[in-house]
Amino acid sequence: MAAPWRDVVRDAAAVREAAAVAVDAALLAGVLMRTGEQPPASDVVNYAPFTLFPSVVPRALFEQAYAVQQDFNMLVDAISQNKEFLEQTLASTIKVDDFTAQLFRIYMQVLEEGLAQTVVLGINRSDYMFDCGLDGTAALRQIEINTIAASFGGLTSRTADVHGLVLKVLGKTEEASHLLPNNPAKGLALGIAKAWELYGSQRAVVMFLVEDVQRNIFDQRCVENELWNRNIRVIRKRFRDVFERGSLDASRRLYMDGQEVAVVYYREGYVPQNYDQQNWEARLLLERSRAVKCPNIATQLAGTKKVQQELSRPGMLEKLLPGRPEAVTRIRATFAGLYSLDEGEEGDRIAATAIADPESFVLKPQREGGGNNLYGEELRQVLEKIKDSPERTSYILMDKIKPQPALNYLLRAHSPLQVSECVSELGIFGVYVRQGQELVLNQAAGHLLRTKAIEHADGGVAAGVAVLDTPYLV
Ligand code: ADP
Ligand code: MG
């Protein structure tokens, strides 16, 4: 679908002028990140990378993605309560993947002790690309669902205004008026606030668990400030702080520096590099506590790629969401082909197929954060090497999604202004709160569009590959 501003994409003077306006507008609007050179400093910042133009997104697919979000919330929540499913699904993975195995050990340990946590808060982001069929029609295909530390719900709320201004500068005032308002941070804060309220202690705080280096702090501050606006206290701590100064009382209430913690919101803890022995101990302490963890360890495991792959097996969704055939249909309609590499005939067959045709697949390990997947020739080589070893079960295979590229400019500090062929990935934020067995909140909270140049097969905004964008619905 051609963009209504295609006439100006190659107009160098117009583009230069619009880019200058866009960068200043982004800085004014708070589309900010700390810099790679001075990551701990908030007095040296720059704009977070973003596209010059909004990107065209088919309205029907956008609406489809929103319409299935409550179903995905329900599904993740159901998986997180299904010990048998998690045990069976991850059995082969945890034999070969140490990180998943360590998460799983904590999961089993807290179940054995008995859960002190009675209120559950889930914040996730389901990501999609638009697969272009042979006849040119696009289909919504889920890439993955992120159940921990799903980011950019804050910064993305500020890009629509920037893109609106760009379109006006380019004489596209009518088009500018069609850009949708979007504020995921508000929706995420609503969920956190609800969980805090149900926890039931006025004095208790919300703890953001953050990384040592926090380049994306402004994105987090958007959520944080929404909570302060509701008069909920927020503290920011690292695993190390929890290890040194966190404690549980007799009823497993969590205390940090003498303050009771109602909700722990993880913006950390999703990759092996986030953990040393002390951090694992801190994680266990948090999981054992009564505090509402977002996510709890079970929900983090529900977001693994192995779980995603098992969900695509015939009959699996029906088992997990009994009595909800419409939800099952909506969810399944977004699935791409997903394949197990477990030992046995099924795995042997798909491994051979992928080695013969590596351009049609993506090889994914159980990792988050971008830059871990394998494509093309590299996929072929790695799979060839591990195809007869148990190591292959630490991966899954997925059909490669092939979106239709479009021209855009990726605005990055200190980078030249040049046109690129780009593809986009749409994320929908979901938030839900459960008290005991009752789902008291279940919503889609907003969207995120990220766009990257086609020469990069993999990687998100934090990984320095994709940039923030705004959907323009057609
Ligand atoms: P991560 O947890 O590292 O974010 P993803 O599954 O989201 O892992 O993959 C990272 C990136 O790789 C995605 O943002 C997307 O650009 C690309 N990607 C992932 N799966 C596919 C696929 N099936 N087809 C095409 N590109 C993909
Ligand atoms: Mg991803």
TrEMBL record:
Gene3D superfamilies reported for this sequence: 3.30.1490.50, 3.30.1490.80, ATP-grasp fold, B domain (3.30.470.20), Glutathione synthase, substrate-binding domain superfamily, eukaryotic (3.40.50.1760), Glutathione Synthetase, Chain A, domain 3 (1.10.1080.10)
Binding residue positions for substrate: 125, 148-151, 214-216, 220, 267-270, 450, 461-462
Glutathione synthase substrate-binding domain sequence ranges: 204-302
Domain of life of the source: Eukaryota
Any one GO MF annotation of this record: metal ion binding
Residues annotated for Mg(2+) binding in this entry: E144, N146, E368
Pfam families recorded: GSH_synth_ATP, GSH_synthase
EC number of the protein: 6.3.2.3
Note on cofactor: Binds 1 Mg(2+) ion per subunit.
InterPro entries: Glutathione_synthase (IPR005615), Glutathione_synthase_a-hlx (IPR014042), Glutathione_synthase_C_euk (IPR014709), Glutathione_synthase_N_euk (IPR014049), GSH-S_sub-bd_sf (IPR037013), GSH_synth_subst-bd (IPR004887), PreATP-grasp_dom_sf (IPR016185)
Segments passing through the bilayer: none
Pathway: Sulfur metabolism; glutathione biosynthesis; glutathione from L-cysteine and L-glutamate: step 2/2
Catalytic activity: gamma-L-glutamyl-L-cysteine + glycine + ATP = glutathione + ADP + phosphate + H(+); gamma-L-glutamyl-(2S)-2-aminobutanoate + glycine + ATP = ophthalmate + ADP + phosphate + H(+)
One GO term describing the cellular component: cytosol
The entry's keywords: ATP-binding, Glutathione biosynthesis, Ligase, Magnesium, Metal-binding, Nucleotide-binding
Cofactor(s) this protein requires: Mg(2+)
Binding site for ATP: 144, 305, 364-373, 375, 398-401, 425, 452, 458
Subunit structure: Homodimer.
Family affiliation: Belongs to the eukaryotic GSH synthase family.
Function: Catalyzes the production of glutathione from gamma-glutamylcysteine and glycine in an ATP-dependent manner. Glutathione (gamma-glutamylcysteinylglycine, GSH) is the most abundant intracellular thiol in living aerobic cells and is required for numerous processes including the protection of cells against oxidative damage, amino acid transport, the detoxification of foreign compounds, the maintenance of protein sulfhydryl groups in a reduced state and acts as a cofactor for a number of enzymes. Participates in ophthalmate biosynthesis in hepatocytes.
UniProt name for this protein: Glutathione synthetase
Annotated organism of origin: Oriolus oriolus (Eurasian golden oriole)
Name of the encoding gene: Gss
